[in-house]
Write a structure and sequence with these properties.
This protein has 263 residues and is an alpha/beta fold. The chain has one domain: Rossmann fold. 43% of the residues lie in helices and 16% in strands. The strands form 2 sheets. Strands 3-2-1-4-6-7-9-10 form an 8-stranded mixed sheet, with helices on both faces. A two-stranded parallel sheet has the order 5-8. Strand 1, helix 1 and strand 2 form a beta-alpha-beta unit. The longest helix has 22 residues. The protein is globular, with a radius of gyration of 17 Å.
Length: 263
């Protein structure tokens, strides 16, 4: 049985994607924290999990690999904004854990999906989207927007490292920055950021339009091991957002962090 797996599938763009594929008759697995939200998609298989925790990701990976050995697509949408720095029970900064570590674990952990669509950002060329190599957990001068921008850049590099490691395999890796979409923007916001989010909700593209580039990549994955889009326009991989050396460095750091958590 083939399946489409969607993290953050109980809300916003993830929920709209799940509804689209359920309406087509596909088997859809949604991963999220809130059973009440999942109940609005009764035909989906719901896995309740806090994806900011490494242990929960590994449990989800094991369950999916056992129940759905043929995954057609993994769509990574889960995210949560925090204006105040939060550290998980496992010792990781919350945005880094949910927006990046979870996507790293699921990308590498699921058994050979046909396509992985990582819905993230930021767009190439945005200076704020940089890796704090000496402060990955943002212990010094935490800022919620900077945390999400770092996670966005980390996901760009995740795509590069994944494609290099699995170039001969069947999985196509797709990075999509959906641009401003009037989605749920789950999170805990300070007043200034909340006002900005209200503007995005007011003027962003409707969710049904925002998911169209994702659907296009799921239905017809690009031929290349790695591709990137903003939101439907191709992004050249020949720019500083996708430097292979940085991708390898982050991949090594991530694996060391995960090993340190296991020891």
């Amino acid at each position: 049985m083939t399946a489409i797996v969607i993290t953050g599938g109980t809300d916003g763009m993830g929920r709209a994607l799940a509804r689209t594929y359920l309406d087509r008759g596909d088997t859809v697995v949604i991963v999220g924290r809130d059973p009440a939200k999942a109940a609005t998609l009764p035909d989906a298989h719901f896995i309740r999990a806090d994806l900011s925790l490494v242990a929960e990701n590994r449990r989800v990976i094991e369950e999916i690999n056992e129940r759905y050995p043929a995954v057609r697509a993994l769509v990574l949408c889960a995210r949560y904004f925090r204006s105040t720095r939060f550290v998980t029970a496992e010792g990781f900064e919350g945005t880094f854990a949910l927006d990046y570590l979870s996507r790293f674990l699921l990308s590498h952990g699921l058994d050979r999906p046909r396509v992985i669509v990582n819905v993230s950002g930021p767009a190439p060329g945005i200076p704020a989207g940089r890796i704090r190599w000496n402060d990955l957990m943002l212990e010094r001068g935490y800022d919620g927007v900077a945390a999400q921008m770092q996670a966005g850049r980390a996901n760009d590099l995740l795509g590069v490292a994944f494609a290099r490691r699995h170039a001969a395999g069947p999985t196509r890796y797709v990075l999509i920055n959906p641009g401003p979409v009037s989605t749920s923007f789950a999170g805990e916001y300070d007043a200034a950021t909340a006002a900005h989010v209200a503007g995005l909700k007011r003027y962003g593209a409707p969710v049904d339009d925002g998911i169209k580039p994702i659907i296009a990549r799921v239905d017809a994955p690009p031929a290349e091991p790695l591709s990137a889009f903003l939101p439907d326009a191709r992004i050249s991989l020949d720019n500083p957002s996708f430097v292979p050396g940085d991708a390898g460095r982050l991949d090594d750091l991530t694996r060391r962090l995960l090993r340190s958590r296991d020891n």
